[in-house]
Amino acid sequence: MEDHTFVVGQEFPDVKAFRNAIKEAAIAQHFELRIVKSDLIRYFDKCATEGCPWRIRAVKLPNAPTFTIRSLEGTHTCGKNAQNGHHQASVDWIVSFIEERLRDNINYKPKDILHDIHKQYGIIIPYKQAWRAKERGLAAIYGSSEEGYCMLPTFCEQIKKTNPGSIAEVFTTGADNRFQRLFISFHASICGFLSGCLPIVGLGGIQLKSKYLGTLLSATAFDADGGLFPLAFGIVDTENDDSWIWFLSELHKALEMNSEKMPQLTFLSDGQKGTLDAVRRKFPNSCHAFCMRYLSESISKEFKNSRLVHLLWKAAYATTTTAFKEKMAEIEEASPEAAKWIQQFPPSRWALLYFEGTRYGHLSSNIEDRWILDARELPIIQVVEQIHNKLIHSWFSVLAPSAETRMREVISRASTYQVLRSDEVEFEVISAERSDIVNIGKHSCSCRDWQLYGIPCAHAAAAIMSCRKDVYAFAEKCFTVASYCEAYSEEIYPIPQKIDWNKFGEAPSTLNEDAQVVRPPKFRRQPGRPEKKRICVEELNREKHTVHCSRCNQTGHYKTTCKADIMKGIEQFEPCTI
């Protein structure tokens, strides 16, 4: 009932369908309802505004659940009196409105719910009501948080049963078995890391946003293509020194069980004391570096100077003592306070020149846990399932390898640009060579690279990152791994050999006489070698050769095709004029 009109005799499947229809109409047409009588066999309603004559009455048909409208009186004279809120716009109604949207987008925010409801119905609902509706909608779709925790032991057993050699353990505390920690590492991930990945492990933590909060701890490596390779993850009730020591202890056990000798590892982290102590205690022979992305974001937040970020990266990549000192001197000149701030991070932890281990060019972990951000508002069991579903793909990046490489390059260049914000969507991005206008709403940049390639250019990446948004979300969907997998999701089955056709059905020779016999077309290839009509790009640009006739000394033809003799003969037979 998109037009929200009613007529006498109109029928509805049951009383619930009628109630929903009348409620939807009241919200859409901005009038409040006052229920006079409502039960399983009759429904009588009127407009809540004093003096408005509108009335509606519906009854249940005998021997059927169907409801039909018996009477409809008057027209509304009350006007739009509910646009700043509506009593019928309950939490349950909002849940029904957003359920399909939530299935498609877990991160459907309360402010987006408010916007969509106002756009479609013209009413304003409280933010808290939208937030409550989202919580209830997620519970209806994915189950409650409590159910998720109850299912964890069974889920861990299923992981170990279906993936032999994997580690999946849940730890509780107290006499009432309250959740404390969860550790999972798939056997395929462990073996893949030990046999084919760089000996670098990035450590990261991300706050979960479900009813009982918690923190997801992750250990992520790099494959040969530089792509992220999830190694292990854990969920803890509280992130602290003890939880990091526990997590790295479980990781050490997992690696030790599957290798004769523990590899020499390099860890990348944000440099917090908890991770420093945990790595030193559980992997004493490893090297530990600070993530340059964390350092650059920290100095940018502290001093609001993009040039300092650029110089810090230059110092980190410096391969000579002279080059390193020059960049540090430039930082000192640009901001003595920033130079003093950097001193709290020893160069041996972040600069390539002074780092004792091997980083294979990886100065930052690049671990944003993009593959779990979408699920962090879900119950814990859904978080684990989301990670498991991501791990079954062949790639772990958001984009396919070639697009991922391009994205990394533009993000790296973007860190050196200065961004000036005009409004919500338009920015001016200033580089050393030029100035460009970026509109993230229209996915456009004045350099035109974004429009041409479908992936944000460096100017666009700088603008997007300046407003703390995910650059990957602005790439065209066709470049994602999900789209790649979807393109090859259907299998092409092999066709049997001719000799086997009779096993699957009758061959054409055994068909009855009425069956259609397909014969070749009448047109056939002409005898001789076919003429090739290839077009060479180089020949198109090449200067044409001018041919010359040796008989008549004219251009444009050869001796064999010369018509000079023929023309002379014709002239001899022409009659003479007197």
TrEMBL record:
Source taxonomy: Eukaryota, Viridiplantae, Streptophyta, Embryophyta, Tracheophyta
Q: Quote the protein name from its UniProt record.
A: SWIM-type domain-containing protein
Would the keyword Metal-binding be found if you checked this record's keyword annotation?
yes
Q: Which PROSITE patterns match?
A: ZF_SWIM (PS50966)
Q: What terms describe the molecular function in GO for this protein?
A: zinc ion binding
* InterPro entries xref list: MULE_transposase_dom, Transposase_MuDR, Znf_PMZ, Znf_SWIM
Q: Which residues form a coiled coil?
A: none
**Species this protein is from:** Gossypium raimondii
| Transmembrane parts of this sequence | none
